[in-house]
Amino acid sequence: MSDSNDKLAILLNELREFDTALLANTIGYIDPTPPHEYYMGQSISCLTPTLGPSVGVAVTCEVESSTPNVKADWELYWKQLDEIAAMKIPVIWVVKTLGSRPDHECVLGDGMAKTLYAAGSIAVVTDGGARDLNAFPSIPFAAYGRGKTIHHCALRFHRKDRPVEVGGITVRPGDVLHANAEGVIRLPASCLAKLPERAVAMRAFEQDAHRHLRRTDLTALEKRKLVTALVGKYGFAAGAKAAKRKRVSVQL
Questions:
Q1: Cβ partners under 8 Å of residue 168, min gap 6
Q2: Using CA atoms, how far apart are residues 75 and 41, in angstroms rounded to an integer?
Q3: How far apart are CA 176 and CA 6, in angstroms?
Q4: What mean pLDDT is predicted for residues 16-41?
Q5: Least trusted range by pLDDT, from 18-27, 174-183, 238-247
Q6: What is the predicted pLDDT for the residue at 248?
């Protein structure tokens, strides 16, 4: 493994310590990337909620699994497995579906999940479905997608290693994704290195702020003033100002 991969693997492992929502909040304070560019919508939900968080580098492909009367074509899949194995870092397989019946898309079951995990992939993120999900925790392999789908037509693998749109955002090969039971985000490369340290501060800020938000002896204005002061205390003042200029709202 190269030095750069070593450092990335350490960083990915650090990021597993945090909830996905906490990281999304942290990004909003420290990075100018608009939130609509890095969080996936409700169409992509966690299908293996006992596993997570999932943190890895995106490897992308396009698949159709619902189109009737076509021949299967797995050639690109087997090539991609070898590519994943050569990366030597945790990978999240990001699958864009192209089939003619979107509600019938089923991109993998437990057999493919085991093959992917053996190659170095820890999770799948797809706008299609999956099956055999009860077996995924024992692999362990996480799944994030539209839902359960019991079967599929012939699988045809199309383009790989290109940008894909899943969950309303664009995911490019090499992007770092973070996901848990609540959803999936893309971590902007521009803040990746400092994200773990600032996430620790965000966690402390939220806990400190929440103890005031729970109080019944304060007015809403008093709570607002206290929380505003805490933003500065934990070193997020500059980021908050930048976020405000961009009309970004970071929830507590």
A1: 36, 40, 41, 43
A2: 31
A3: 15
A4: 97
A5: 238-247
A6: 41
